[in-house]
Amino acid sequence: MSELRFDGRVAIITGAGGGLGRSHALELARRGAQVLVNDLGGAVDGSGSSMSAADRVVDEITALGGIAAPNHDSVATADGGKAIVQGALDAFGRVDILVNNAGILRDKAFHKMDDAMIESVIDVHLKGALFVSQPAYRLMREQGYGRIVNTSSASGLFGNFGQANYGAAKAGLAGLTRVLALEGAGRGIKVNAIAPIAATRMTEEILGTLADKVSPDSVSPLVAYLAHEECSVSGRVYSVAGGRIARIFVAETHGVVLGKNTPEEIQAKLSLIDVMDGERYHLPLSLEDETAIIAKALSEVS
Ligand code: NAI
């Protein structure tokens, strides 16, 4: 097995001043990538800012013999996204890899969540990924090559109490991954997502004894693979924690075409609609795929 190297490649890692982002930045830099270390340097809830988080990671990479430059813009605005991508161009002249990792938490039961909690979390995670991805994606499209790795979460894909804002944003990242994978396929661009669990400041109060087994650097090898030229997949979402990796996918039951399309008939057939045995579900890989499944089901009854 030859080492997967990134010599000559330029990577942007957002939120790389600590936690998972720092670990991804170190992993890619160790393998030869030139890394733009972006971080606003705020608290877990997004408050405050400081240049030192990104600068420290750049110093770490440089001390290990790697190449990195800092960037302190926020991902949460369109201008910030453009400035981050421009920062990579100014420092290294191109962009091959984008890891959308920056994130904050503002947890609260939904009935108590205020507007600022909703807006700030959607802004950083979901709009942030769109705002940084778009200028990077445009460059990737022009050069016919790119890798984007988004950071989703089990919270959005499976649900988690107290995270309506965060879960909605993280599920949105899975959607963004699917759409960009389809749009970028003809231009050498691969887009995948991870749903990690790792012991960082974000999770220090919730992981308990699992914390010892799920270091951030156990997540970064998957990010490196998905960011590499030899990555063979696109549009996928992987659960990753402590060296365990699994694919997460969206499936659809075989479905039922109702004789009478009434609420009463739906009530009567719900268990059949919901049934998920091995033979009776579909794995549509796009909206087009799903539409074809629907068309086939309807044609079989007409
Ligand atoms: P962390 O708090 O250590 O790292 C997040 C980084 O993003 C921080 O350094 C922060 O300063 C930066 N950041 C926040 N807002 C920013 C903005 N507007 N612009 C630029 N940078 C900004 O937390 P962690 O755990 O490393 O999280 C990294 C990503 O992984 C996040 O997207 C998080 O939601 C996600 N994640 C983490 C999980 C875990 O178990 N740690 C679980 C699932 C997802």
Q: Which percent range describes the beta-strand content?
A: 15-25%
Which sequence of SSEs, written as H and E, runs from N to C? EHEHEHEHEHHEHEEEHEH
Sheet bearing the most strands, described? Answer: 8 strands, mixed
Pick out the low-confidence regions. none
Question: What percent of residues adopt helix (DSSP H or I)?
Answer: 40-55%
CATH fold annotation of the largest domain:
Rossmann fold
Distance between the termini: 54 Å
Label the overall shape: globular
The helix/strand class is alpha/beta
Query: Order of strands across the biggest sheet?
Result: 3-2-1-4-5-6-7-8
Strand segment tally: 10
Number of H- or I-type helical stretches: 9
The H-level CATH homologous superfamily of the largest domain, spelled out, is: NAD(P)-binding Rossmann-like Domain
Bound molecules: 1,4-dihydronicotinamide adenine dinucleotide
Any idea what the CATH architecture of the largest domain is?
3-Layer(aba) Sandwich
Explain the overall architecture:
With 302 residues, this protein is α/β, with parallel strands linked by helices. It folds into 2 domains: 10-248, NAD(P)-binding Rossmann-like Domain (Rossmann fold, 3-Layer(aba) Sandwich), CATH 3.40.50; 252-299. It has 9 helices and 10 strands. It has helices spanning 19-30, 52-63, 78-92, 115-143, 154-158, 164-184, 220-227, 263-274, 287-301; strands at residues 10-13, 34-38, 67-71, 97-100, 146-151, 189-196, 237-241, 244-248, 252-253, 281-282. It has an 8-stranded mixed β-sheet with strand order 3-2-1-4-5-6-7-8, sandwiched between helices. Strand 4, helix 4 (115-143) and strand 5 (146-151) form a beta-alpha-beta unit. Helix 3 packs parallel to helix 4 and helix 4 packs parallel to helix 6 (164-184). The radius of gyration is 21 Å and the shape is globular. The structure holds 1,4-dihydronicotinamide adenine dinucleotide (NAI). 1,4-dihydronicotinamide adenine dinucleotide is lined by residues 14-15, 17-21, 38-42, 44, 46, 53, 74-76, 101-104, 124, 128, 151, 153, 196-198, 200-203. The site of 1,4-dihydronicotinamide adenine dinucleotide has 33 residues, from helix 1 and helix 4.
